[in-house]
Amino acid sequence: MTSQLTTSTANPVLRVPPASPAAAAAYFGASLAFHADVSDVAAALAADGDPGFVVVDSRSAASWDQGHIPGAVHLPTALIAEQARDLLDPTVPVVTYCWGPGCNGATRAALALAELGYQVKEMLGGFEYWAREGFEFETWEGRERRTADPLTAPVDSDDCGC
């Protein structure tokens, strides 16, 4: 009996074999260089001192007013080329976000900033997961916080153990 899978016998998950450990390490290492987790961003912003990055909300003014991360810079993607140099220090890394996982606005914003020479990461989950994980946000009416969604964040701990 052979340990190698064939396309006729493999289940859908293994029909295409996993990458080699070296290729997987390169891929996942690169992924972490491009992405930041909502919880990690929140923890860095909540810690004493300078987090070492700035958060950029790339959505429209109406979306910003509906809710945004406290301390974020509002810079809609369409205005990045025109306003980034006035709003952002080119020596400080940027973390972009948009609505959520179904939106690629943060990716477009990250691309625009990278093309201008900024070091940039995209915050996975966007504003949706920021709010769903129970982190405080600002609206045009003031600050809000929702109860953490137990499908996205631990309810009994500040640490998910990831």
Q: Mind explaining what this structure looks like?
A:
This protein is α/β, with parallel strands linked by helices and 162 residues long. Helices cover 34% and strands 15% of the residues. The chain contains six helices and seven strands. The mean pLDDT is 92.
Reported for the largest beta sheet, the result is: 5 strands, parallel
* Helix count, DSSP H or I runs of 4 or more residues: 6
**Largest beta sheet: strand ordering:** 1-5-4-2-3
**Helix/strand/pairing class, anyone?**
alpha/beta
Estimated radius of gyration: 19 Å
Spans where pLDDT lies below 50 across 5 or more residues: none
Between the first and last Cα atoms, what is the distance in angstroms?
37 Å
Shape: globular
Assess the beta-strand content as a share of residues.
Answer: 5-15%
What oligomeric state is this? Answer: single chain
Order of helices and strands: HEHEHEHEHEHEE
The overall strand count is: 7
Helix content: 25-40%
The overall average pLDDT, rounded, is 92
